[in-house]
Amino acid sequence: LNQKISSTQLDAQDPLNHFKSRFHFPKYGSKNTIYFCGNSLGLQPKTVKKFLLEELKQWEKFGVEGHFEGERPWKDYHKFLTPFIAKIVGAKNDEVVVMNTLTTNLHLLMASFYKPEGKRTKILMEAGAFPSDQYAMETQAKWHGLDPAENVVELQPRAGEFTLRKEDILSKIEELDDSLALVMMGGVNYYTGQFFPLEEITKAGHKVGALVGFDLAHAAGNVELQLHDWKVDFACWCSYKYLNSGPGGPAGIFVHEKHGNNPNILRLAGWWGHYEEERFLMKKGFIPMKGAQSWQQSNAQVLAFAAHLASLEIFDEAGIKNLREKSVKLTEYLHSKLRAIANSDSKFSIITPKNANERGAQLSILVSQNGKKIFDILTENGVIADWREPNVIRIAPAPLYCGYKDCDRFVKIFEMAILG
Ligand SMILES: Cc1ncc(COP(=O)(O)O)c(C=O)c1O
Question: Taking the model in full, what pTM does it have?
Answer without folding.
Answer: 0.97
